[in-house]
Specification:
7 helices, mainly alpha, flat, 190 residues, 0% strand
């Protein structure tokens, strides 16, 4: 086993020890204060969600973004379900059911965004500059869809509200695609 692999395994074990400590401390604290699990359901599910995503980014060797996207795809809907149920059961007098009308469509929008970007990289074999440019441009419809769903308003109002975001994403997309062209020319010369 390589020395870097040993360090990675030690780092991963340390990460998960800290994770379980945080999980246990918040569980015991909530149980001691409320004599039941109330807010811990939010904290615990957030630790699981965030810890799994961080593990994929920090400790996956070759295909970090694919591992991250897979974890996000699998965990985001159950995470939203826990949030909705816990908040409605313990923190609101009148429940608000937002998962089906808002949470699920937004989650599916960003899941599609992640996997389309992975497909561009894997199928088209674009360089990183071109992929970042494409990701910026693809973020525009994802941001617009998110804002339409969340704000329950027309696309025209969203375009007006999101004008600066769109301009920034267009600029980043153009810069990324231009950088990708230069990177491609540089790689062909060398």
């Amino acid at each position: 086993m390589k020395d870097s692999d040993k360090k990675g395994n030690v780092g991963r074990k340390f990460f998960w020890v800290l994770f379980f400590l945080a999980f246990a401390i918040t569980a015991v604290t909530n149980l001691a204060i409320d004599h039941q699990f109330t807010w811990f359901r939010i904290v615990g599910s957030s630790l699981i969600f965030g810890g799994t995503l961080l593990d994929a980014l920090l400790f996956s060797k070759n295909i970090r973004f694919i591992h991250f996207s897979t974890a996000f795809t699998v965990l985001i809907i159950p995470y939203f379900m826990v949030l909705e149920r816990t908040i409605n059961n313990y923190f609101l007098d009148t429940p608000v059911f937002w998962l089906r009308s808002i949470g699920l469509p937004i989650a599916l929008t960003w899941i599609a965004y992640l996997w389309i970007n992975i497909g561009i990289r894997k199928v088209l074999h674009w360089n990183m500059g071109s992929c970042l440019g494409a990701a910026s441009l693809l973020a525009i419809p994802a941001v617009l869809a998110t804002n339409v769903i969340a704000n329950q308003t027309s696309i025209y109002n969203i375009l007006e509200m999101s004008f600066i975001t769109i301009v920034v994403l267009l600029a980043c997309g153009a810069l990324g695609l231009i950088a990708g062209l230069f990177m491609g020319k540089y790689n062909r010369k060398h």
